[in-house]
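Our platform keeps sequence and structure together, in a single record for each protein. Nothing more is needed to write down the fold, since each code stands for a local backbone conformation. An entry from our holdings is shown next, in its original layout:
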Amino acid sequence: MRASKRYSVTALYLSMNANQRDLEIEDDLARAQKALRELKARISSQSKKNFVLEKDVRYLDSRIALLVQNRMALEERDEVASHLDDASDITEGTFPNDEKTQKYGNLMFLLQSEPRHIAHLCRLVTMAEIDQLLQTVMFTIYGNQYESREEHLLLTMFQSVLTYQFDNTPDYSSLLRANTPVSRMMTTYTRRGPGQSYLKSVLADRINSLIEIKDLDLEINPLKVYEAMIGKIEADGESLPTGLSKGITGEQAAANENVQRIIGPRIEMLIEIADSFLDTIIDGLDETPYGIRWICKQIRSLTRRKYPDASEQTVCTLIGGFFFLRFINPAIVTPRSYMLIEQTPADNPKRTLTYVAKMLQNLANKPSYAKEPYMHKLQPFVHKNKERINKFMLDLCEVQDFYETLEMDNYVALSKRDLELQITLNEVYATHSLLEKHGAELAKDENSHLNQLLSEIGAAPAQLPRKENRIINLPLYSKWETPLDDLTAALDITQEEVYFMEAKSTFVMIMRSLPSTSAVTRRPLRLDRVADAAGTTKNDSVMVRKGIRAMELLHQLQDLGIVDKEDNYALLRDEIEQELVHLGSLKEKVLAETTKLDEVFRTIRDHNTYLVGQLETYKSYLHNVRGQSEGTTKRGQSSKVLGPYKFTHQELEKQGVIQKSNVPENRRANIYFNITSPSPGTFVISLHYKGRNRGLLELDLKLDDLLEMQKEQQEDLDLEYVQFNVTKVLQLLNKRFARKRGW
């Protein structure tokens, strides 16, 4: 206990030191840590942008689908147009007045530091309201995804939500399964930076190696296998043998010997593939984000508390309901939306991934029956891995609690004067509006802090048009500030502990600042000499202050009988030397984590580019549709032709536009493409060979056809000699033509 307290107090001392300049250290570790902090901040910020963009794309996806089918009224088109016009980066601004800033700062601090209010609100909101609330909670109020205080407060909120779920669900079999605001909240939590990083490091290679084998058909649904078999016979121009007929039932197909012969090896291969996925997931235990493991731990403890007679199997099933159903399986089934792969997988690997997810889910659920009878043939996978998966589920729960650290972090937060929240005005107003709507339920006690703040702020303002929305830096502080005079009592530590930790921290900072060639850095350390060397440093007043303070602390600890000069302050010296060894290995860990997160950040940024491209495409298409419906192109008047723009084979291959080429390697340098837009939304792609006047072939394209292909997840656009990637073609067309037509 003493050691953990010491560790906490070090953090506290460092956080609350009055003179920040005294804490500045410029060694390799400090620089690496600073770079890592900045990278984590960028990931948090980019994650939020992507979440907002995904929400926009989902909305526009459904609306544009109607446009493509010409089923949308003109006023609806205008509504979509305004949504698109607004979908731009939000600029920075401030609150209209200081009083509002202060009151909202008090409110947001209360919501952040007392998670029970948001937990309660999450239970009250509708499915229609949850996305906006989750955006604010997950990516703003607790948006610093790698900062311990915010993460721990967010997890405390989850604990509150889960406790309520368990207390109010009579039958455990339906726990965590229904699609509710709470389940959406848990899924969104897994999409934050740490969860994304885990999925990429654990699953990406496995999924990518599987989807490369496009022709591997592992369908085991007897009816589909039978139909494919019939289709192949007919495609080969043969007549159907006796005994094979169309329009049979699933049971009849399953009884067919040929179907059974086809399915047998496929079952074995599916089990082999699912085993490899399971191995990867189990081996990645230590990489599983702390927060996800802690939620698993809460599910275990709540299950045991609510259902004391529940078997271990039941406990593991409920943990699996979160870990696999909400976290792992969605990423396996739709790896592209989780940024694990670049292209939508072909039909065969896509189906295989669905089977793998079902098998893992069945393993986690241990159902006594299979919804689809043919899935029963995969039961050997469940039987042989039952014990492994149960052990893994329980191992996930083996993480420490954070309550003591959180208590200390909250005291530190109260002591700071620079706590800020980067939040948009609309996020503030939307949160205020939800609190107001559900105020009677949330703040039943008239004297509660929440009720007082809501009364003072007044009515919630309406949402601003996007163009008027602003990002603000909202200073956070408590209206009911806790005095921090008696920290030792509040944190259950002694004054001796505080002196000891201050001494340890001071000596560590001195050692990190001294040149490694200095004689006093040799082991075993002579602490009095280290303090003396620091106190007599020339031209460095900060170091001198540290040296003098270190010497004072040695004397104080000696007087208190905690250390002894006779043994060269061995107790303190040993801890300092251990800390320095730890910091040495810490640097390697920081660099390794930075490398890993760099990859995550690149992936998130690439996904952002893809989402922005989607919005640009929608903008282009909408412009065309509106232009046509409003008759902006006069009959008989030709539109301005744009292009041709010339692209080499190598260029398009590098950009990923060409995903497969049948052009011989030695001729590719002579191939080029011209792209022309004779009218808005219409494009002509022609393939040319150097030295020849006429193109080898031409392809007419309509923007809505491309959009429809993308919607149907048809990624291949066949140009006879080459295969284009539909998404990349859309991005290229937007880049070249959209702005030139003033879209």
In short: Confidence is low (pLDDT under 50) at residues 1-22, 70-74, 483-487, 630-637.
